[in-house]
């Protein structure tokens, strides 16, 4: 009996009609394996995963494979995005056994969950042979199987250990991390390393803050060049905005077409901050259109942001997005079609499959003549209308707490910067206004959804779908990212409620997730017991739970003046610092927050009767040093500690600037505030 029909996960629902007797992850599934004395197959993936779909079509929809699984195993299907704790443990086992990892992840385990053989994607022929071999080994070589499992669990325990060496995350270490990233930088194509190439959003956010603190031109150039290369490449949707998960090549040409919420949230933050610091029109456009993509394509009205758009459309990757020159001519006419083919690098040979091309921007259009920009925008609109008639990729509609937190933080920062640069004279002022309005509404609905649906009896739940919260408990990254988001929303709105909620989440995290020596586990002390308790300090596709929590602690401490949260952040950063020194590409979010602490962070309170239009507020947000917090409003505004006991000065608006809880005299002019902040611009 397939038990997935009642699942909340879209990924599990994709397998509800398989001839496999799937179980959801549960104690009952393992009890059934023990009763039958058979091994467990744990299959881990996610809804937007291309090779997960391939393995499903080849194997899990096949009657022969289903019969083998049903006769000899208890089969458990896991959504890695719904259960990151389960995924983390078995991914560590897979990497320990094979030297690599990925999804779909295929794990064979004993009835107590101990993994003894791991892999990723298997073609059907290989998978059938593997099922037969594991069945034979379980029956005839049980002792060896159990021994191997025990060795794997020991390896997992070592990989997930806490209590290792610590060191202060100081200026020399952050300078060395920036220098190491510069050595690994691809000066030709942008980014780091070769194919496949992932958007290095967290590393670039770190380098931007490093540039702010040090004025290092190389850090800015690495960020600027990589951001431009991605934005002009096929990894960026040149018509609708939004970034794909990664490029299969080293030069950003052909993407793996799935679009993830977390990537687009972090990239929105990157382009927003690049725009803020440089005024770059390309960064402005990409930030605007990525915010629009989040609001239009991923936001669920009345709820939060959906997790992803699939890589496939009707089982074909890129079907929605790729073009031939003839298709451009068909959509645009001969003259505009050939012009578009030249602009978007669509050739007869193609850059993708079967003579198709992924749209790339061959040259800069943001600084082009007005008539060129007008033609480009008109062509984009017509091509998008034509593309909308094609089959569209499916959407994974589940709402993940941590990823929604990342999106809320990014949109809050975008709203602040958009307000700083707002000008009725801009040729696309109406478009920018429209984007800020819909993005603001989506952000606020997502925050309300987290606060009212995901918070259950004071504890955070990981996922929801269709307004119904799921059972999986929130993990550390959920608490950290949502707390940081609520701190960002407090700064944007001046509403004390969000700061209060952030503090409650952080208090729960400090009480329930703490590990020896200032570290943190990824699961709470009362969470389900797995074969090991995960505690991964490295940033990968998303900030690690530890990095996310540190960022939330730093922001909350700056907004409230409560030093114990800063002390907890410093202690946690010290556990990550040795990794920052050795592997900065996997500690970008931690290093970014380390820059904030090294900078102060600055606490900027602008006392004003006009928090949306006061030039002092605009200056504070435009010239804020790395990781600074900025609030604006009336003196003693309820729920806003930074405005307490801070009056107007001679009836005029005043900016109060503090750094690490040490405050300067208030200033009343923009020039005085900019000087106080020591801008690197």
State the gist of this model.
This protein is of the alpha+beta class.
Helices and strands in order:
Layout: H1 10-13, E1 22-24, H2 27-36, E2 40-45, H3 50-60, H4 63-72, E3 74-79, H5 84-98, E4 105-109, E5 115-119, H6 124-140, H7 142-159, H8 171-184, H9 201-214, H10 217-232, E6 246-247, E7 255-256, E8 259-260, H11 261-278, H12 281-298, E9 306-309, E10 312-313, E11 316-317, H13 325-332, H14 334-343, H15 370-387, E12 395-400, H16 401-421, H17 429-454, E13 455-456, E14 459-460, E15 463-465, E16 468-469, H18 476-493, H19 496-512, H20 545-560, H21 563-582, H22 588-599, E17 602-607, H23 615-622, E18 629-633, E19 654-659, E20 662-663, H24 670-677
Parallel strand pairs: 1-3, 2-3, 17-18
Antiparallel strand pairs: 2-4, 4-5, 6-7, 8-9, 9-12, 10-11, 12-15, 13-14, 15-16, 17-19, 19-20
Helix pairs in contact: 4-6, 5-7, 8-9, 8-21, 9-10, 9-11, 9-22, 11-12, 11-16, 12-17, 13-14, 16-17, 16-18, 16-23, 18-19, 18-20, 19-20, 20-21, 20-22, 21-22, 23-24
Protein described:
Helix content is 51%, strand content 11%. The protein contains 24 helices and 20 strands. The strands form 6 sheets. Strands 1-3-2-4-5 form a 5-stranded mixed sheet, sandwiched between helices. It has a 5-stranded antiparallel sheet with strand order 8-9-12-15-16. Helix 4 runs parallel beside helix 6 (124-140) and helix 5 (84-98) packs across helix 7 (142-159). The model has no long low-confidence stretch (mean pLDDT 94).
């Amino acid at each position: 009996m397939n038990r997935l029909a009642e699942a909340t996960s879209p990924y599990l629902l994709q397998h509800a009609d398989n001839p496999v007797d799937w179980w959801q992850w549960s104690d009952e599934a393992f009890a059934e394996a023990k009763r039958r004395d058979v091994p467990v197959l744990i299959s881990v993936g996610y809804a937007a995963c291309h090779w997960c779909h391939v393995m499903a079509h080849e194997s899990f929809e096949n009657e022969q494979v289903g019969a083998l699984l049903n006769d000899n195993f208890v089969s458990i299907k896991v959504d890695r995005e719904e259960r990151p704790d389960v995924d983390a443990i078995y991914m560590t086992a897979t990497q320990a056994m094979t030297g690599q990892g990925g999804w779909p992840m295929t794990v064979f385990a004993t009835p107590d969950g101990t993994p003894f053989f791991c892999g990723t994607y298997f073609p059907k022929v290989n998978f059938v042979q593997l099922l037969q071999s594991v069945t034979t080994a379980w029956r005839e070589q049980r002792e060896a199987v159990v021994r191997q499992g025990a060795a794997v669990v020991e390896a997992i325990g070592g990989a997930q250990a806490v209590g290792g060496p610590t060191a202060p995350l100081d200026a020399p270490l952050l300078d060395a991390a920036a220098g190491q990233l510069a050595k690994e930088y691809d000066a030709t194509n942008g980014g780091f390393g070769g194919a496949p190439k992932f958007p290095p959003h967290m590393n670039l956010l770190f380098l931007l803050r490093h540039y702010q603190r040090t004025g290092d031109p190389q850090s800015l150039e690495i960020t600027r060049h990589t951001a431009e290369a991605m934005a002009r490449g096929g990894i960026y949707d040149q018509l609708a905005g939004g970034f794909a998960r990664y490029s299969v090549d080293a030069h950003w040409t052909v993407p793996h077409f799935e679009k993830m919420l977390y990537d687009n949230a972090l990239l929105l933050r990157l382009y927003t901050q690049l725009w803020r610091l440089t005024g770059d029109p390309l960064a402005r456009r990409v930030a605007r259109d990525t915010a629009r993509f989040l609001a239009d394509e991923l936001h669920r009205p009345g709820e939060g942001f959906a997790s992803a758009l699939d890589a496939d459309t009707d089982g074909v990757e890129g079907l929605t997005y790729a073009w031939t020159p003839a298709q451009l001519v068909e959509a645009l006419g001969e003259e505009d079609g050939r012009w578009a083919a030249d602009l978007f690098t669509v050739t007869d040979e193609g850059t993708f499959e079967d003579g198709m091309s992924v749209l790339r921007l061959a040259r800069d259009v943001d600084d082009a003549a007005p008539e060129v920009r007008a033609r480009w925008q008109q062509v984009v609109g017509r091509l998008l209308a034509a593309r909308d008639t094609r089959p569209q990729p499916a959407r994974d509609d589940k709402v993940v707490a941590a990823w929604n937190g990342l999106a809320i933080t990014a949109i809050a920062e975008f709203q602040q910067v958009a307000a700083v640069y707002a000008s009725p004279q801009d040729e696309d002022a109406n478009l920018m206004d429209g984007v800020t309005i819909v993005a603001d509404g989506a952000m606020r609905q997502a925050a309300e959804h987290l606060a009212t649906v995901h918070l259950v009896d004071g504890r955070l739940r990981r996922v929801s779908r269709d307004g119904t919260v799921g059972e999986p408990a929130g993990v550390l990254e959920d608490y950290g990212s949502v707390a940081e988001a609520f701190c960002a929303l407090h700064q944007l709105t001046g509403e004390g409620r969000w700061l209060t909620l952030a503090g409650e989440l952080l208090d729960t995290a400090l009480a329930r997730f703490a590990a020896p020596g200032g570290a943190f586990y990824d699961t709470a002390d009362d969470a389900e017991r797995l074969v090991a308790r995960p505690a991964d300090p490295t940033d990968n596709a998303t900030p690690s739970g530890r990095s996310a929590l540190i960022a939330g602690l730093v922001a909350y401490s700056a907004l409230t003046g409560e030093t114990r949260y800063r002390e907890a952040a410093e202690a946690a950063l010290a556990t990550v610092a040795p990794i920052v020194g050795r592997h900065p590409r996997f500690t970008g979010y931690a290093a970014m927050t380390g820059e904030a602490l090294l900078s102060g962070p600055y606490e900027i309170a602008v006392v004003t009767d006009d928090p949306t239009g006061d030039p002092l507020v605009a200056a504070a947000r435009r010239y804020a040093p790395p990781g600074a917090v900025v609030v604006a409003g009336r003196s003693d505004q309820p729920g806003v500690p930074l405005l307490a006991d801070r009056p107007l000065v001679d009836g005029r608006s005043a900016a109060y600037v503090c750094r690490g809880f040490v405050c300067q005299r208030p200033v009343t002019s923009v020039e005085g505030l900019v000087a106080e902040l020591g801008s690197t611009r």
